[in-house]
Model the fold of this input.
Amino acid sequence: MKTKLFFTAMLALGVQQTTPAQVDANGYTTVNMSMGASYQNRVFFDLSANTMVSQPANTWDIAFYRNASMNFGTRINDAQNIEVYQASSNPNDWNSITTNSVASYGSPLYNLDNTTTIQKGAFEQGTATYGWGEYNPGNHHVEGKVIFILKYASTNTYYKFMIDDYFGGYTFKYAKWNAANSSWDATTSKTIANGSDDAYFNYFSFATGDKVPGLEPSKSGWDLMFTRYWTDYPYTDPNTGQPATMKYRMAGVIQNTNITVAKVQPETQTTSTSTLPASTAFSNNITAVGHSWKPAMGAPYSDIVYYVKQGSEYYRMYFTSNDGSSTGNMYFKYKNITSTLGTTDIAAKKATFGIYPNPTTADKQVTVLFDIKEKVNTRGQVEVYDLSGKKVYSAELTNQTGFYKQDLNLSHLSSGNYLVKISFGGSTETKKLIIK
Done:
């Protein structure tokens, strides 16, 4: 019990944890991930390192996208259930907005979930060219044009907010609604520079009036972020009986923009083999995983599998449990399948082959296993290429029928990733080989 409490406490503090290596009979690592009761945490998970970082979800209000180039954006904190309204498209109206009423401001604005860019948030949905501002070609700044009102639905708190300027950082102002006096408190102005942090966002809290550090790992330090977000959820309109959508706040996955994901349904989840989907099936939509693995409430679907491409690596994952807001538990399994993408068919089933071991052991000896279904008139060829395309090894394959193996001595090659090309019966196939 003490160990479990310590682990939970360390996650709450945002300490990176390597998850226990629970590997099943098919080679899949089991991840017991929890956002906590009422989804109180936001959890970042890294597939290659099998690590997670958990941070309190409600310690910030606005996230400012930081980038060395002229690239900007914002996100409102959906975990705090904040509604964003455009109050005016005239920055001169700041002092003349004397009420917190949002009834006349139209529908609330939301962070985009169906997008390939993580920085397009609620404020980018305003009516200015860039949502909240316009580009000034004279000084290369984006200058604020839109005033927003933020409504905290759970606490009946209101803020008036406007981004004044963006140029290597954000200058903005805000004022809190004073219910006792029925007026806005004094306006506070703030500037947050992009800085040099290797993360996507800088985070700001109205409660502290300052930047909140350490709320996000480096850009390369995570693949999946478990969080709250708004989405268009399908339902049947009770008045018309027709399909419709409504905004619904889900708990699910937002993916890092450095990975792509292919969802396959139906597919058997528990299996030792796998078939990689076509390259066109992979999506860089930030909610390609999202909540599609589960209904709004209840257990996850049992026939959905996700293939994740991270650089040259491929992972296969599927969800096994979803406890809902009572615990925030979302359990899943995953496996690096880069070197074990199944037996490759050559020449219309005339032969199959595999590579073992992959990755290699210290002696760099590799065995190519063959199952020749039908003898052909020409001999086969095995070639090894480095990632620059240079051929670094070649050998002829004996033309036999039945199951046999051929050993390759690759001790002269340095550690790294290679491609093994097999030619047989007029066709060729390739597999990735990792040499340690």
